[in-house]
Amino acid sequence: MIDPDLNPRKMRFQLSTSTVSADFAPLDFRHPVLAGELADALLHMHRSLGLAGGTAYNYRHAIVSLLRGLPTSYPRIVSLGMLDGDLVEALHEWELSLAATYPPESTLPSKRGRQIRRLIQIHEATGRPVGDSVLAWAQGRVLHGGGEETPLDEFSNAERLAIRDECRRRIRTLEDRLAIGQRGLCHGSAPDSDGWVRAHDAIWAVRHEGRYPGVSIDAVAVRACDQGVLNELSEEFAFDRATTYGGGARVMRRLMSYLYPSDTDLVAFRTLLQLETGAAPEEWSRVTLSDIETATDAIHVRLHKARARRSRTVRCALTHDGRTGWRAGDLLRRLIAVTKHARDEMTANLAPDAESLFLTVNRTSTRHLAARAESFSRRPFSSILTSISPSISHPHDARRLRKTVKSVRAAVLRSADVAAGDDHSVEVYQRHYAQTTTVHVLAGAAVNAAQQQVFTRIQRGPIFVNAHAHSVDGEADDTLAEAAAAEVTASSTDREMNVAHCASPYESPFSPAGRLCEHRPSMCFACPNAIVFADHLPRIIGYREVLRSYENEMSPAQFASVYGQQVANIEQVLDMFSQEQRDQASRDIQDVAERVHVPLAQRGAHL
After folding, report:
1. Is residue 292 within a helix (H) or strand (E), and if so which, with residue range?
2. Taking the domains of the chain in order of start, what are their residue ranges?
């Protein structure tokens, strides 16, 4: 028997904003053999299938969830190759417990079950032993459904503008603070033995003395704040209660804000860049300086989407009138400017993330300052939205910004092809982005507009001439004169075929242009090409009786659906004749009705 390998597995995952080192030690779990087998399957799948870092990291979470959820009563040596059914029972109990662990709308119970099943299948495909019962479980159906997740909708236009304005306000405030901080660096110097007596010295010390490991300037910062030295920068330092619990952290955060952007400030930049370009949050989060290329009239940025394994270049326009603008290119320049101090520190330390676009400086647990790339792992976007009044609709998810931009494009451009853009197909747009409120409203508006066009043409109806054709003056309108002449010279067969005269049978609004109209006589009384003379009255009444005869063959609802509009159109035309004219035509109804020809396709249940 070969002893199982219980050594730690090295795992590194490239996420959207950083590289995560997540070494996996089987001996940290009660069932180390099973832990090692699943970890090996994950590493093999990550290498051979080229999984995105975030996807592989989620698989690691699934493994940890399973190992922590297995009952302690099962032996430590339990493995996928066991032939008895104990492990299958444990897997089933774990999967069943997921429903109580997550809310009903969560998709994680279904996702975790699929992930563990796939890892077992990968383990078996690499030639490792897997028990028949375990393999049957892995090849079976997932126990839980996909959850009751509500698709993310867009932000309303009012919300979009409110978010934009709040982010702009934060950036303006940040730039004002950094300008004060820059002046402080120019005029500040190392504090003397008497401590900090000037606010500029405090800013200088944060920049030059607070970043070394083992060095903490919290104590002197608290003392300077308590003595009112920092009130020169802002009166808000007086409300930080420097000498109370947590006061040092509050004072240092406020001092750092005069030199470095906070995570909320960086999210404000990313939010505006999303609104300008329509890119996903993860696309902007992973941008580096090497992805940025400056041209004469714009800045070109290479965006990467890890999950879709797709890269594209977006054009970020610039403002050229000398003003500090809010276009995408302007935002990039301003973002690079506000991260200058953090970038200088990372470059000096040869930090691997110095090229990242979004940089900040954090106060570590050892109370020294460290520059790093922003991970966007906290909830600064939500904190921005909660500060806006009136309140912004939930959920506070940055992905909704992308849907908002797509919806705005669809509204302005009236085209799914153009709204889809160059970052995914029209099919993906229709499946994920066309389900927003704006697009639904636009679709309804488009249908209403199309219906209105049809109704408008129907409302025009035929041209009505309450006179016999032979009495029409030959010098009248050409179309009318031709119609009258055609009716006078029509044969009995022609009269059987036509309940009205058609002025343009090859230009029917109900058939493709150039094709002979196929809707005679069902649509004649809703067609603007039709001309009705008094000569047609007996045939019109006869045609109405033909339609009425179909009423006995159908249910009322079916007849109203198929022939109701035709009968209504006929009645509208008949109302244009006098009662005496209709009575005279009705006396001849039997003779006329037999001579009205209705195409075979329109007899009975005509569809």
Report:
1. strand 292-294
2. 12-139, 403-447, 461-602
